Amino acid sequence: QVHLVQSRAEVKKPGASVKISCKSSGYIFTDFAVHWVRQAPGQRLEWMGWITSGNGNGESSQNFQDRVIITRDTSATTDYVELSSLTSEDTAVYYCARGYSSGWLEFDYWGQGTLVTVSS
Amino acid sequence: DIQLTQSPSFLSASVGDRVTITCRASQGISSFLAWYQQKPGKAPKLLIYGASTLQSGVPSRFSGSGSGTDFTLTISSLQPEDFATYYCQQLNSYPRTFGQGTKLEI
Fold first, then answer.
1. Which of A59, A63, A104 sits opposite B32 (nearest CB)?
2. Taking all residues of chain A, what is their mean pLDDT, rounded to a whole number?
């Protein structure tokens, strides 16, 4: 069975960074991309970036102004997202999701979510 | 960025009703559209991809249609477990974007 298991909740101060992990199991890790999506309280889902299948290149949305770094440890079947220069607006639940690299490119399995709270 | 606008944002319905949610894209996205269901405190669940293909394990009362800029999600006969928030997502270009959601209430 496919599983994506994320790291636990974090509380951070403004200006700090946070790094969240997403461990995948139950499938050939390098055959799929992994995407990162966040959801602030009461808000819509917001795509942050992805790491490609195969060579595992990380790319982030320009909407985050270079604050996002996405990396992969293939040997550990784990992906990471790091978000820097945190503000209260970054308080959200962060999800990883497995994405197809061909066909209709849908996100078929999701992690359970990691709550990040930014507060002084 | 491609904008997705869902309507309605809130929908009240009863068990057994047929409901339709629409999603309009700001530019053509072929059939690169997915629908997700999200319940409070849970991750989104994939329902439909490629605008009309039912994800494995999803009940057949869910269906999707459309291409280009206009899409619909239909639930043919609402069940109690269907009361949730529904999101459309475009997968045609980066950044991937989502609609604002439709909250389906009893």
1. A104
2. 95
